[in-house]
Amino acid sequence: MQKEEERLSPSPWPQSITMDICKVPENTSKCTANTMPMECFMVLSTQAQKISITTLCCLFGTLCTLENCLVLYLIFSSPTIRKKPSYLFISSLALADILASIIFVSSFVNFHVFNKTDSSKETFLLKLGGVNTSFTASLSSLLLTALDRYISISRPSEYKSLVTRKRAWVALGVLWVTCVTISSLPLLGWNCCTLNSACSELFPFVDDNYLSSWICLVMVLLASIVCAYAHVLWKAHQHVAYMGKHQVQGGKQNARMRMDVMLAKTLVMVLTVLMVCWSPVLVLMIYGIFVKLSIQLRRVFAFCSTLCLLNSMVNPIIYALRSKELYSSLRMAFSRFRRQLRATGDSPEAESTHKSSAIETVCEETCIT
Description:
Elements: H1 2-7, H2 15-21, H3 47-76, H4 85-112, H5 121-154, H6 159-162, H7 165-183, H8 185-188, H9 192-195, H10 208-246, H11 252-290, H12 295-322, H13 324-345, H14 348-368
């Protein structure tokens, strides 16, 4: 029992010593080993906190991975769905959420629960860059999806010529290259150790200026998504009012407009969940730039970080409930799965009996003729 408590302790040093070494003197570099060791960022102090974090991470991470893998399977197993640019953007979102869940859960649990530190600063920044890339790509994929809906509902007659499959792949390529580049900047030298500048109190080795820049990027992405969907909802409201006033029936055009409105409402739900899950983390990040965070607030930040996984877990559920095409693809997948189960359930003896009876029937018919 004593060994287990030692293994789950937040640091190898006594708590009083840890509290002393974590006090960073003013007007000094926060990257030296004497002022900001890695143990200072291990804020979970009790076994109950660690069990809670582990449960949340494993639950959200496992469900997120399984659900988003299902979304990717449903999209790329359907020849019709995978050709549509809209679902290419959704597949990029699902891929980003899968990577975020795997990298975040493994790194977060190893660091905060098992208190394992990396062998070098570069290894830690590489893992942090992976998490940063995944979450930034997730937000950027939502922005592309919002722009896709914006073009679809504002310029429906030109949508197919403007948003093509080739342009969608190019946009996704630019998106992922940009996210990887931005997230790799701390590893490439924009960190407080290389610059001998002030480190963040939430992330080891991360420069405060880089964290501020990343927060600004996230805020710009969120603001752009909000503006795009505000315009989509305004256009949708105008369309519904026009249809109700003039009783216009436009066949396929109206059917496509109704589909666009439904997808817009679906993605607004996704955006709402995104804002709810990300707001606590962003608020604490911004607050930590201007004010020194207490260990209680940093502990709250650790728990709030798991809300990002909750967002990634909820997205596929919204797609399955709101998208008729994905729901239809899911039903077809279950039907194929049931047929395979029935096929594997037939025993070899039953198959041989069926074949022999068929041969006997053919022989009897031949004799009769």
